[in-house]
């Protein structure tokens, strides 16, 4: 499974970002441009994941790593964001609400 840091995510352009935190977490603040597919529903929404390369993020990295491992095994070109949204915020990067 591929991983990137939040710094690398910040420098990344044009790559879709899927946030697998639950809706209330996402609504409280997320990486700009992220699309929310909650961890609790992602298996039922696999058809909504991009067919092109994409990144996946959660709060700390556990849920996104779990989803990324499973999607990678299924043939998706997915990269996990290590450190998650918490690290993104800690680094002072912008958030959307």
UniProtKB/TrEMBL annotation:
One annotated GO molecular function: thiosulfate-cyanide sulfurtransferase activity
SUPFAM superfamilies per record: Rhodanese/Cell cycle control phosphatase
Coiled-coil regions, chain positions: none
InterPro entries, A to Z: GlpE_sulfurtransferase, Rhodanese-like_dom, Rhodanese-like_dom_sf, Thiosulphate_STrfase_CS
Domain Rhodanese: 11-97
Pfam family, one: Rhodanese
Source species, domain of life: Bacteria
CDD domains xref list: RHOD
Protein name: Rhodanese-like domain-containing protein
Organism, as annotated: Microbacterium protaetiae
